[in-house]
Design a protein that fits this description.
There is one protein chain. This protein is α+β, with helices and mostly antiparallel strands. The chain folds into two domains: 2-190, no CATH class; 206-336, no CATH class. The chain is built from eleven helices and twelve strands. The chain has helices at 10-19, 57-60, 96-109, 116-123, 174-181, 206-214, 223-227, 236-240, 285-304, 314-317, 325-336; strands at residues 2-6, 23-30, 33-38, 64-72, 77-81, 89-94, 125-130, 156-160, 166-171, 188-190, 247-253, 257-264. A hairpin with a 3-residue loop joins strand 11 (247-253) and strand 12 (257-264). Helix 6 (206-214) crosses helix 9 and helix 6 (206-214) crosses helix 11. The protein is globular.
C-alpha cells in the first residue's frame, strides 16, 4: 500500500501548507509565459505543461539581488550586508530535470566558498516534483543518464495515477516527509496503478561525446566554427538553463553610497571575458560556444564529477536561431564515429 494524493484534495493541501508557514510555489502560466510563482489556490497551478519556460534556478539564484550597501565617509567606509528574506517554501509541480539542476549546482555553490544566499534558500525549500508522463522533441534527460522520474534534487516525487485522478506519493527525504505531515489526513493509503512514464529517446551517446571533448586535439577543431555559425550570442540558452550559474558583481551608486549587486551574466556575451587591456581570450562566437560545451561536459564534471546539464532541452526549445546543446552533441557523436 502506498500514499495517494488525489487531485481534488490539492487545494486543501495548499491551505494546510500555508497554515504550517509555507509559501506555496508552483508552475503558473500568465499570458504566454510559464514560470514558478507563489500561488494562493490549487487552481492557480498549470500542471499540464511539459515544462515551464523558466527554470527552478530563479527561485534560488535570482537574476539580480543586492549583496551589501555601502557608504563612504572621510575617515571610514561602512558596509551593511543584505541577506535573503527568510521563510519556508514548498515548491510543487516542478519537473525532475529542474530538481536535478539544483543538485548539480549544489557542489559549485559550496565549493571553496559556501554561498549563503544559495544554501539558505535550499535549506528552507521543499521540492515536490511530478514525474513526466509526456515529453516533447526537445526533452533529453535520458541522454544525460537521467529519466522522466529521476529523484535527484527532489524531496518528494509524485507519480501520476493512470486514471489522472491524482498522484502516488514517494517520500525521499526527511524534509519532504516532515512537510507532508501537514497533509497526512488528506492522503489515502491505497494501491492505484500509475501512468507510464514518458518515452524520451536517447539523442546521442554521452560517453562518446565526452571522450571527444577531452581530447586536446579537438580544442582547435574547425567543428566549433561550423556549429556556432548561427549563434547570435543572445544568451537566452544560459539564462534559461537550470544549471548555468555565471554572474557579475557591480556597484550601483555614486562616490559616497550605493549597493553592490550580483547579476546574472553569460559566457555567450562578447564582453564576458573582455580584459581591461582590451584583449579578449574568447573574442569569437565559436570560442564562446566551445567554452559552453566544454564547461558543461568536460571542465565541470572534471571538478565535480557530474555533467552541468540536466536534459531539460530549454536551450534548444527557446533558441531564436534553432540550435542548442542537443544538435552540438549529436554532431560530435558523428565526428567520433
Amino acid at each position: 500500500m502506498t500514499k495517494i494524493l488525489f487531485s481534488d484534495k490539492l487545494d486543501n493541501c495548499v491551505t494546510r501548507w500555508q497554515a504550517a508557514g509555507f509559501t506555496v510555489i508552483g508552475p503558473v502560466t500568465k499570458e504566454t509565459l510559464s514560470s514558478y510563482a507563489a500561488v494562493e489556490h490549487a487552481s492557480d497551478f498549470d500542471l499540464g505543461i511539459v515544462l515551464p519556460d523558466r527554470s527552478l534556478k530563479e527561485l534560488f539564484f535570482p537574476q539580480t539581488e543586492p549583496m551589501l550597501r555601502y557608504t563612504i565617509k572621510q575617515q571610514a567606509i561602512n558596509t551593511e550586508d543584505f541577506t535573503p528574506p527568510s521563510g519556508k517554501r514548498l515548491i510543487i509541480g516542478g519537473r525532475p530535470c529542474d530538481a536535478a539542476g539544483l543538485s548539480i549546482d549544489d557542489p559549485l555553490f559550496g565549493w571553496d566558498y559556501k554561498d549563503k544566499y544559495w544554501f539558505q534558500r535550499r535549506n528552507e525549500s521543499v521540492i515536490v516534483t511530478i514525474a513526466c508522463t509526456k515529453a516533447d522533441d526537445f526533452c533529453l534527460c535520458t541522454s544525460l543518464k537521467l529519466a522522466p522520474d529521476s529523484t535527484n534534487g527532489s524531496d518528494i516525487l509524485l507519480r501520476p495515477l493512470e486514471n489522472n485522478s491524482g498522484w502516488e506519493v514517494e517520500e525521499l527525504t526527511d524534509r519532504g516527509r516532515e512537510a507532508f505531515l501537514a497533509i497526512a489526513e488528506l492522503l489515502l493509503e491505497a494501491s492505484e496503478p500509475t501512468a507510464p512514464m514518458a518515452v524520451v529517446p536517447e539523442m546521442f551517446d554521452l560517453d562518446t561525446c565526452v571522450a571527444w571533448l577531452q581530447n586536446p586535439e579537438n580544442f582547435e577543431s574547425k567543428f566549433w566554427k561550423d556549429i556556432s555559425m548561427r549563434c547570435i550570442g543572445c544568451g537566452s540558452c544560459t539564462y534559461l538553463c537550470p544549471t548555468c550559474h555565471c554572474f557579475d558583481i557591480q556597484d550601483e551608486g555614486d562616490t559616497y553610497s550605493g549597493i553592490r549587486r550580483k547579476n546574472w551574466d553569460s559566457c555567450s556575451f562578447a564582453l564576458f571575458t573582455m580584459h581591461t587591456s582590451g584583449h579578449n581570450p574568447r573574442s569569437t562566437q565559436s570560442a564562446r560556444w566551445r567554452q559552453r560545451i566544454m564547461h558543461k561536459f568536460n571542465y565541470f564534471p572534471g571538478k565535480f564529477n557530474v555533467n552541468s546539464c540536466s536534459g531539460c532541452g530549454r536551450c534548444s526549445r527557446q533558441c531564436p536561431v534553432d540550435m542548442g546543446i542537443t544538435e552540438t552533441l549529436q554532431k560530435i557523436s558523428t565526428l567520433h564515429s
